[in-house]
Amino acid sequence: MGVADGVSFTARLAATLLAILLLALLGRRAARLLRQPEVVGEIMAGLFAGPFIVAFFGTDVLHSLLPAGTLGTLKLVSEGGLALFLVGTTHKLRLGVQRTVRRAAGPVALGAFVLPLVTGALLAGWLVWRGDADVRGHAPASAVVLMVAVSLSITAVPVLARILEERGMLGSVTGRVAMFAAILIDIAGWVLLSIAVGLASGSPAGFLRSMEVLAAGALLALGARRALGSRLGTGMVTRARRRTALVIGALAITLAFASERLGLTAVFGAVLLGLAVPATDSAPWESAVASVTRAGRGLVPVFFAVTGVTVLTAGFDDTPWGLVVVTVVLGALSKVGGGYLGARLGGQERRESLRIGVLMNTRGLTELVVLKVGYSAGVLSPPLFLAMVVMALTTTAMTGPCLQLLKTREPRAERVSAGAVT
């Protein structure tokens, strides 16, 4: 590539990145007008930009706007940004909570994880039994069943935290129980996701290799956690916080691509690093991790746009819309119902249990990451991926209106009392 070609390529790439970020900004503003979490508008704007161009202007226009070289570079940028963002997201999964909250959240997590897991397995089993290869794909049945089951069971911690914060519920008992239950669900989800990717190899040797990588990575994360939490690690981050943030970012990207080369998903390495970074008050790790997370968060819209261009443009025509409706209904009922039953078993009263069930139905960004992993691993077909994406967006968008509906249905005396307390 000559100098002129290099300058032209860089200019096109910069213009494309700017267009994606502006589109994300418009999506966030639209979401605020609709009283939705900003991330919902950001996701929808990025995901459906590519399909919109194809539907109204044709595939040739899309290819002229995004040539193969530019799209390939955008994929690398999106994967690197996602790795940076996931370090901070999973780092928060290790933050401590009160014992009473843990005790109440356990049954909620169990109900909101197991019931959707079983529902997803039954849905996938039905698709496999039907034998429609265009819908169920060509991956081993065990991988498809586990992947769909995990996809229905996810609750997105980042989006849930934002919803709770916007509604002033983050410090309430209901909010703390929902957050910790979501943390437990996501930890279990990451483990099962790695197993599903291992099963996708279709051979015992490939699966065992993936599990060996998973076990080795967990041991390395445990060792890194102890080393970073030592006096030497504490002194390092205290003296050079910015430099430590750069090291964490470089490690996140390196581990992400290394884990992909070893047969697991790229996000696995970033997740392990996030879990390895100390989450204590003895060292200012939170500040260093926050810098990494902000950098990744700024690039997350690229992930949405690339996903829409590479996946959704291929999945519209072959998608049975009956499957989309069934997936949305099963996803919502199993999550809300499972969270409600778990909260009731944990001793919560009926109205609070229903509110917790609605909060557990928030899937958001975490769900999209899981789905993209399943698609990239060849487990989810384009139609099944699209059905799951619509389910993720619909259930996340339902959370705010459902919470508002529950609030308006409260007895007037309770609303006056709650306002007095506030």
UniProtKB/TrEMBL annotation:
Localization terms from the record: Membrane
Domain Cation/H+ exchanger transmembrane, residue spans: 22-403
Pfam family, one: Na_H_Exchanger
InterPro entries for this protein: Cation/H_exchanger_TM, CPA2_transporter, Na+/solute_symporter_sf
Topological relation to the membrane, as annotated: Multi-pass membrane protein
Domain of life: Bacteria
Keywords tagged on the record: Ion transport, Membrane, Transmembrane, Transmembrane helix, Transport
Main location: membrane
Transmembrane spans: 6-27, 39-59, 65-87, 108-129, 141-165, 177-200, 206-224, 245-278, 298-316, 323-343, 384-406
Annotated protein name in UniProt: Cation:proton antiporter
Originating organism: Streptomyces mirabilis
